[in-house]
Amino acid sequence: MALVLMKHECLVELANRSYRIHIAPGLLADTGPLCRESRLNGPLLLVSDEQVAARYAGVVAESLQAASFEVTQVTVPPGEASKCHTQLIRIYDAALAAGLDRAATVVALGGGVIGDLAGYAAATYLRGIRYVQIPTTLLAMVDSAVGGKTAVNLPQGKNLIGAFHQPATVVADMDTLATLPPREWRAGLAEVIKYGFIADPSLLDLLETHTVESLTAATDTLAEIVQRSCAIKADVVNRDEREGGLRAILNFGHTLGHALEQLTGYTTYLHGEAIAIGMIYAARLSQHLLKLPTNDVSRLQQLLKQYELPTIPPDLPWDRVRAALQRDKKKLDGTIGFVLVRQPGVAVYGQKVPAEMLEATWRELRDTP
Ligand SMILES: NC(=O)c1ccc[n+]([C@@H]2O[C@H](COP(=O)([O-])OP(=O)(O)OC[C@H]3O[C@@H](n4cnc5c(N)ncnc54)[C@H](O)[C@@H]3O)[C@@H](O)[C@H]2O)c1
Ligand SMILES: [Zn+2]
Fold first, then answer.
1. What is the CA radius of gyration of the chain?
2. Which residues of the chain are in CATH 1.20.1090.10 domains?
3. So what's the pLDDT on residue 217?
4. 320 CA distance to ligand 2 centroid (A)?
5. In the chain, N or C terminus with fewer CB closer than 10 Å?
6. Which of 8, 83, 184, 251 is catalytic?
7. Distance 133 CA to ligand 1 centre (A)
8. How far is 47 from 91, CA to CA, in rounded Å?
9. What is the CATH number of domain 182-367?
10. How far is 228 from 246, CA to CA, in rounded Å?
């Protein structure tokens, strides 16, 4: 049966695991009814980080309790370091102490760190219970809360332990973005620019008419941007849930982006900042290999600058960059597989790029920004 969607909703269609993404201001206060609508009935474990909990856990817990849910809370320190086994065990401990059984649901309130950590806890506790995503960063709203990838880190690397586990619903309250630090904002927008470039150039048109300041004030436009980004991700996930192929296009800019994050010890760049540089690199490769028009490369560069995102790579020796690129997970028969763009809106994945071109393009980016 086709569902009638409200203006800013999005449906991820995965047969009996389909779910809705609700996008609007003020939604935290409706968490209880939205969880009931998603047929959640058991007790809830509300997982958040200290910063987000201080601001938003109260209103969420209140709404859940008003809808007669039993709520237990667990809070972890903010930051990537919490995506680890120590915090995971704390979540399991809290769930066991509260006597949560398989009817229980985890509610992940926060950014991508909480979504990934609490989502993985839900994927594994008692062999899997349901969970709800309540993303409070732009990155989480447009990316990590949608699609069902959950993970924790190991000392050896990021996201090495994980599971595919789709949420029961996603509740994106646009009002929460009002407290997001500007740098986090811009980093989230890098993922939106990515969606525009790989799948929907009209998103680029829209972003070109705004700035970070004007967007933060334009809640309705922002909700539209989040909705359209989610729709692109949902469409890709609908067609390729487990990254057999197509889902890889979401990694545009991520091959070099991940390498830069890793080479700089995850301290210099936020993820979105690293992929901004990665997107410029991939666009230039696309220009050389697929004849992406120069104007489109310039357009991407201009838009990234407009949102104060970096476009010039750091001063790193090519040998180290190449070695880091080779460690990337998305390798094809020993060569590095890139996501490139033939024209804005048309992405190509698994593109093999000659080694000389990888190096020449890196140098070009360093020397002629
Ligand atoms: N599962 C996926 O598909 C997927 C996709 C992309 C990224 N990720 C993961 O997401 C993580 C990054 O997520 P993130 O960028 O949201 O970081 P994050 O969760 O660390 O949040 C960033 C910071 O903002 C704070 N914060 C969150 N919401 C706030 C708000 N509304 N107001 C004020 N402060 C707020 C947090 O306390 C934190 O300090 C990484 O671990 C990455 O691996 C996962
Ligand atoms: Zn990303």
1. 20
2. 182-367
3. 85
4. 22
5. N
6. 251
7. 12
8. 8
9. 1.20.1090.10
10. 18
pLDDT tens readout for residues 161-216? 999 999 999 999 999 999 999 999 999 999 999 999 999 999 999 999 998 889 88
Protein residues with CB under 6 Å of any ligand 1 atom: 49, 51-52, 78-80, 83, 110-114, 116, 136-137, 139-140, 143-144, 147, 149, 159, 176, 179-180, 184, 271
| pLDDT < 70 positions in the chain | 1-7, 328-335, 369
- Specify burial of residue 104 (Cβ count, 10 A radius: 0-12, 13-18, 19+): buried
Going by C-beta distance under 8 Å and a sequence separation of 6 or more, which residues neighbour residue 150?
115, 116, 117, 119, 120, 122, 123, 162, 163, 164, 165
Instruction: Give the pLDDT confidence of 88-112 residue by residue, as tens digits.
Output: 999 999 999 999 999 999 999 999 9
Report pLDDT for 4.
Answer: 44
How far lies 68's CA from each of 20, 28, 32, 63, in Å?
22, 16, 8, 9
Q: CA-to-CA distance for 199 and 202, rounded, in angstroms?
A: 9
**Measured between alpha carbons, how far is 200 from 66 in angstroms, rounded to an integer?**
40
55 is catalytic: no
Name the residue of 76, 137, 232 to mutate for ligand 1: max ligand atoms within 8 A of Cβ: 137
Catalytic annotation on 271?
yes
Token pair belonging to 119: 């989502």
Q: Tokens 């192929």 identify what position?
A: 245
pTM: 0.94
> Does domain 9-179 fall into CATH 3.40.50.1970?
yes
Q: Is 233 a catalytic residue?
A: yes
Where does CATH 3.40.50.1970 sit in the chain?
A: 9-179
Q: Of these residues, 8, 20, 130, 149, which one is catalytic?
A: 149
Rounded Cα–Cα distance for residues 266 and 153 (Å)? 13
Question: What is the 122 CA–ligand 2 centroid distance (Å)?
Answer: 22
Amino acid occupying residue 122 = A
Question: Residue 359 to residues 293, 321, 354, 366: CA-CA distances in angstroms?
Answer: 21, 9, 9, 11
Rounded Cα distance, 113 and 49, in Å: 9
Ligand 2 center to residue 348 CA distance, Å? 17
